[in-house]
PadR family transcriptional regulator
Amino acid sequence: MFGPGDLRLVLLALVAEQPRHGYELIKAIEEKFGGTYAPSPGSVYPTLTLLEELGQVAAATTEGAKRLFEITEEGRAFLAENKAAVDGVMERMAMAARAMTGEAPPEVIFEAMHTLKAALRFHRAGWDDAETERVRAILVRAAREIGAGETGEGDGE
């Protein structure tokens, strides 16, 4: 469900909202997916341990073996430095949640996706900071418009 590093970002962002136990984090993610998906404890708890080892969260023992995770200043700094990635994974998660309860797109949409991937792969203008930001903004805007069902300007043809 998540790409490399995505679960780490999601857990850190959720702990930044409010301190939580591991089980509460699993339930929060399940809620974001409308009940259609929940990460396994076998992926959540090792990721929380990693975040703790990196100094991005701190855990306090409460109620027996339960640990309450809180974000640290290092964790807040990491989230701030990776805001675009955090926003992206949250948007992908919301899109996946909608897709899990909806229908698959028509074949012509898959063809358009392959064309977009080819355009990115064969991009020849170079990838300086300005060009990277320009393309990123186009892709994010398109994803938001598609996710919201907006049409944008023109018909794109």
